[in-house]
Amino acid sequence: MKKKVLNIITRLNIGGATIHAVNLTYALEDYYENKLVSGQIEPYESDMSYYAKKYNVPVTYIKNMSRELQFPNDLIAFWRIYKLIRREKPDIVHTHLSKAGTLGRIAALCAGVPFVYHTFHGNIFKGDFSKWKIKMFIYIERILAKISTNIIAISEKQKEELLSYKITKADKIKVIKLGFDFSNVLALPEHKNQFRNIHNIPNDTLIIALIGRITYQKNPKMFIDIAEILLTIKLPTKPYFLIIGDGDMRDDMQSEINKRGLQNNVIITGFVTDLKPVFADVDMVLMTSHFEGTPVAIIEAMANGKIVLSTNVGGISDIVENGVNGFYFDDFNADLFVDKVLEIVEGRIDLNIISEKAKIVAKETFAIGRLVKDMNDLYEL
Q1: Strand pairing of 59-61 and 92-96?
Q2: Domain containing 357: what range?
Q3: C-alpha torsion angle, residues 307, 312, 316, 319 (rounded to 10)
Q4: What residues contact 48, with CB distance under 8 A and at least 6 apart?
Q5: pLDDT digits (tens, 9 = 90+) for 200-237
Q6: Is 90 helix (H, G, I), strand (E, B) or coil?
Q7: Where are the alpha helices (H) located in the chain, listed in sequence order?
Q8: 209 and 242 in contact (C-beta within 8 Å)?
């Protein structure tokens, strides 16, 4: 008889956590009886529940669970999760993101679930929160770690960060990297120029993209700073800068673009479901984030052989070998990005070698088969 696993995630918004939770649910179905439980997205977030539907993963929704701290709703959500666990009687509860990690782990403890795991998908201790909130989060996570069978970090760098905050001891943290079905994002020849045509971008023009949620974490203002500098430099043709995503800062960033007079070459496309045409046409992918876990957009770009440039945050240095399969910068300095883009445009870097190495690292390190093996090894301990 198969063991039953309950994956509980705060919400199915756009991002790597959603992809990972869905992947775990469908990819391990030959080994376990898997169920996916989710809360609700916030009004300003884009819904990624379509990804679960793509793989025929049914979702049980806890309508009172959301990202924001809301005491009455959080209490109701806890009770509903507890009742669900009591009804389903899972052998394993695996939580994702902080709210689900809090409510789900406590409910699992109260319901007597023998094995409880939590995956950190980012660093909530570096978010746009007040100091007292961050201290509270650290204290709560230390307590929750005591009732967890294991804490899962998605990169070695993230494990180091969790240890620096003394969340738990090193032997309790397991590093299990994300795993992807790259067939969802690998561009094919027939996708060429589709994205350019939608946005009226000439075929011979450089496209530099930021792919992700338009939030404080992703630091989109720095991307606009980079665009503004490059657009003042005389290049053979003016590049186009695309912010591919949506989020609570979208209106502010559009105002910033308009204020600087960049609207002809800096475009916010909104959320794009099918990224194959995007990766067929984009030349470089930039990530200017303040903090990250393991950024999915960077991995998907590398799988497509795209040149990536990123701030050195979270697990970036575990993915990108600087100057070998991509580039990263230790400072939040737009000029560093600009200088590297100019090196690339002027042909001073062999892009073919970097592109091929990026493909190999992404596809070998983050294969879905590797994720299945790692999770099987963990669950069967």
Answers
A1: unpaired
A2: 183-365
A3: 60
A4: 12, 13, 14, 15, 18, 19
A5: 999 989 999 999 999 999 999 999 999 999 999 988 88
A6: coil
A7: 16-27, 49-54, 71-88, 98-111, 131-146, 156-164, 194-198, 220-232, 250-259, 276-281, 296-303, 316-319, 334-345, 351-365, 368-379
A8: yes
CATH number of the domain to which 172 belongs: 3.40.50.2000
Tell me the whole-structure pTM to 2 decimals.
0.89
Structure tokens at 37: 């439980």
161's tokens: 């960060």
**Cβ contact 24:94 at 8 Å:** yes
Closest CA to 85 of 70, 107, 100: 107
C-alpha distance from residue 239 to each of 223, 227, 341 (Å): 13, 8, 11
Average pLDDT over residues 251-256: 98
Q: What are phi and psi of 279, to 5 degrees?
A: -70, -20
> Average of pLDDT values for 112-124?
91
Instruction: Based on the fold, state whether residues 140 and 230 are members of the same structural domain.
Output: no
Q: What residues contact residue 363 under an 8 Å CB cut-off, 6+ apart?
A: 182, 303
Per the CB < 8 A criterion, the answer to whether 271 and 47 are in contact is no
| Cβ-based neighbour number of residue 102 at 10 Å | 22
Same domain, yes or no: 193 and 230? yes
